[in-house]
Design a protein that fits this description.
The complex is a heterodimer of chains A (about 270) and B (about 260).
Chain A (H helix, E strand, L loop, with lengths): L1 H11 L4 E5 L3 H9 L5 E5 L9 E3 L7 H15 L7 E6 L8 E6 L8 H6 L5 H17 L8 E5 L2 H6 L1 E3 L17 H8 L5 E4 L5 E8 L14 H12 L3 E5 L6 E5 L2 E6 L5
Parallel strand pairs in A: 1-2, 1-4, 2-3, 6-8
Antiparallel strand pairs in A: 4-5, 6-10, 7-9, 8-9, 10-11, 11-12
Chain B lengths: L1 H8 L1 H29 L2 H5 L3 H8 L4 H25 L5 H38 L10 H21 L5 H38 L7 E4 L2 E8 L3 E5 L4 E5 H7 L1 E3 L3
Antiparallel strand pairs in B: 1-2, 1-5, 2-3, 3-4
The chains are: A alpha/beta (about 270), B alpha+beta (about 260).
Chain lengths: ~270, ~260
């Protein structure tokens, strides 16, 4: 099979580092035995105890997204540099790693998704949990019907002062945090209420039923999105919060920060 | 028939019977113990502890050791009983001491094994818990916990076999009192703050989004947890211990 090695060898010849996406323990150790090789592990959790690890907020279904966000996180953490040639090994069809692609790290096309998680006011865990709730809600809907929802995460004090209640707050004097086991069901039930959910930096659900009153001046979000997205996008411009919006009409989950659309995912793909 | 009778009365025969019975019962108890321990999830619980690893390296396991121990305990009793019945030794004085001593020794060994496992396990748990704290000095804490547990174990085991442990006990008391005193001094503020925090969380005199003043700091409440309240104005973020909230009182701002 020397012939094949010659041809495919170009894929991993003289790469600066190897990026493994969610490798298994034994697979990772095989790489560690190779000398003079930088190995970077990317995944939703550091299951193999790797030294250089980049956390992915979600197990992206789409390969190019997975690699792009993984590399963006690695760039952001400074484990790779702009222009590095990387061999990215990931899985497409099976559970194990079955695909290698050669990618050049590019600092220009950053989307800011990494910032969304790590450099937000809210804890990364909280952002992750809210995003998961939104995706799950988008996938299943409420009792089979598509629902929309708007979560404003972080900087809750300011957000509360830039919004008003539409009705009594069901979370008043409660101590419910996102990520608690029962919360997903609760949020699903409450998602039929109008208005936004407000979640604090530490993940406490402060309120539901909020009508956001930011000034929408200078908000640059794609045309065609509805009032919910506009409200969500605008509040992130006025405060340091981020907004995670589930669209009722097209079922996509979008995340806004500083008035800009940063992430757009299709719940069906997860 | 008579020969049969006299044979039964022969002490050596009874002794042999007792011995055989002891061996069977000992073996059965050992097996039963092994099954019970395995079924109750002991192998999973002790997995990864150095004791288990040492046991593995000499080709056995914790469960096996404990099970063997119970077997050997019964074998020992059987052998002693047999010796007594066969009257091989003039045993009365000896017998009295041994019957007292063997169960104690058994319990002492059991306590030691248990102590080693618990010590290793607590070390693992504590170091796992502290893994987030990336400070080299922190690795001392799991060791301290481990040796504290071992120390208590040794005292119990030695007490079992009748060694005088008063001096060791005094040392332990001094150590425990020291920890308690250091703990209360070090965590005094935390205790007071958390007591205040419980009130704040239960009664919520202010909530996220309210504008309040605590002492000199005025701002919008961003977060209330057990120990601190975070308030924020336009340029500054204050993290106020809940203790201070009670000392200074809360002013709610009305616009």
């Amino acid at each position: 099979m020397a012939g094949l090695d010659d041809v495919f060898g170009d894929l991993f010849a003289s790469v600066d580092a190897v990026v493994l996406f969610s490798p298994s323990g034994s697979y990772y150790e095989q790489f560690m035995e190779i000398e003079d090789l930088d190995v970077i592990v990317v995944g939703t959790e550091n299951a193999v105890g790797a030294e250089t690890f980049v956390e992915l907020p979600l197990e992206f279904g789409n390969i190019s997204e997975r690699i792009r966000y993984g590399l963006e996180g690695a760039l952001e953490q400074g484990v790779i540099e702009d222009g590095d040639e990387l061999a990215c090994a990931t899985s497409v069809f099976s559970d194990g790693i079955d695909t290698v692609s050669r990618v050049r790290a590019d600092a220009e096309t950053r989307t800011g998704i990494y910032d969304l998680f790590v450099k937000s006011r809210a804890d990364p865990e909280v952002v992750k949990s809210v995003l998961e709730v939104a995706i799950e809600l988008g996938k299943k809907g409420q009792k089979g019907k598509p629902v929309g929802a708007l979560f404003v995460v972080g900087d809750a004090g300011k957000v509360m002062n830039k919004s008003r209640p539409l009705s009594y707050n069901p979370f008043e004097k409660s101590h419910v945090h996102v990520g608690d086991p029962i919360v997903n069901v609760m949020l699903k039930e409450f998602s039929r209420l109008d208005g936004a959910f407000i979640i604090s930096d530490a993940g406490k659900i402060v309120s539901a039923y909020r009508y956001l009153e930011p000034s929408a001046e200078g908000v640059d979000i794609p045309k065609g999105l509805g009032a919910r997205h506009m409200a969500g996008g605008a509040i992130t411009r006025d405060t340091n919060a981020i907004a995670i919006v589930l669209s009722e009409s097209d079922g996509l989950v979008r995340a806004f920060k500083a008035g800009e659309l940063i992430l757009e995912v299709d719940p069906e793909a997860y | 028939m008579v020969a049969w009778q006299s044979l039964l009365n022969e002490p050596a025969v009874i002794a042999a019977a007792v011995l055989a019975l002891g061996l069977v019962v000992g073996y059965l108890v050992g097996r039963l113990n092994e099954e019970l321990l395995s079924a109750s999830g002991v192998p999973e619980a002790v997995e990864g502890t150095p004791f288990e690893r040492t046991a593995q390296s000499i080709g056995t396991s914790t469960v096996e050791i404990v099970a063997r121990l119970s077997s050997w305990f019964i074998y020992g009793i059987a052998v002693l009983t047999a010796i007594h019945i066969a009257q091989l030794l003039d045993t009365d004085a000896f017998w009295l001491r041994v019957t007292e001593f063997v169960p104690q020794l058994f319990i002492a060994v059991l306590v030691l094994i248990l102590g080693f496992i618990v010590a290793d396990k607590t070390e693992l748990i504590v170091s796992e818990y502290l893994r987030g704290v990336k400070l080299p000095e922190v690795s001392v804490i799991p060791k301290v916990v481990k040796y504290s547990v071992l120390y208590v174990t040794f005292i119990i085991a030695l007490g079992q076999v009748g060694v005088h442990v008063l001096a060791l006990l005094i040392l332990l008391t001094v150590y425990a009192v020291g920890i308690v005193i250091v703990g209360t001094v070090a965590f005094k503020d935390f205790l007071v703050s958390s007591a205040a925090g419980i009130y704040l969380l239960l009664n919520q005199p202010y909530g996220i989004g309210d504008e309040i003043r605590i002492g000199d700091q005025t701002g919008i409440v961003q977060e209330v947890d057990l120990f601190v309240t975070k308030i924020e104005d336009d340029s500054e973020e204050y993290i106020v211990p809940n203790r201070k909230v009670f000392e200074d009182g809360i002013v709610r701002m009305r616009d």
